[in-house]
Amino acid sequence: MDDLQLVIFDCDGVLVDSEVISNGVLAEMLTADGLPTTVTQARRDFQGLLLSEVGERVQEKLGRPLAQDWIIQFERLRAERFRCELQPVPGAVEVVERVSAGGLAVCVASQGKLEKTRLSLELTGLRPLFADRALFSAYTVARGKPHPDLFLHAAAEMGAEPSRCVVVEDTPSGVIGAVAAGMRVFGYAADSDEQALRHAGAEVLRALEELPRLLNL
Q: Which helix (H) or strand (E) holds 13?
């Protein structure tokens, strides 16, 4: 790892502990819409998807369209819950600081919209650790995860070679996209399926605090 240039962090589930909150809101709304769903089922069926893709799958299951403002309602309720409940992943602040102090560039590449990423980082005290130019969203590229587009875009904008990038992800779709981009991937498995992450091509990371040692920092 001596020639490493850039560490790319996913946001949800890697830097901020948002997955239970987001999927709790999703489960509540789907149940209210006539599709009884638990948090576990929401994570299994929809985690890692763009909201538009979630909506498409839900409509297929329901056999009818959702309300036109369904995504807007979801984003509003999720933001309200974030403001009350969102916390950083244990060790996230310290790990990003350590990586930066080791001379490596850092950025965030999220499946979510940029405004969501900014809010999440602000609420958890992580926002000052990333420059404005170091935040990337799948909504700005042709294809989101599991395609490599987002990771390749982030590397290009940060001036790094893909082969000299490391990605930290918590979903198989994110791991698949990073592997396809030619990057080394650590799968953060504290709250994810370790076997699925490994099967997708990740080296498993059980605690975020392990990362600096694995990067020889």
A: none
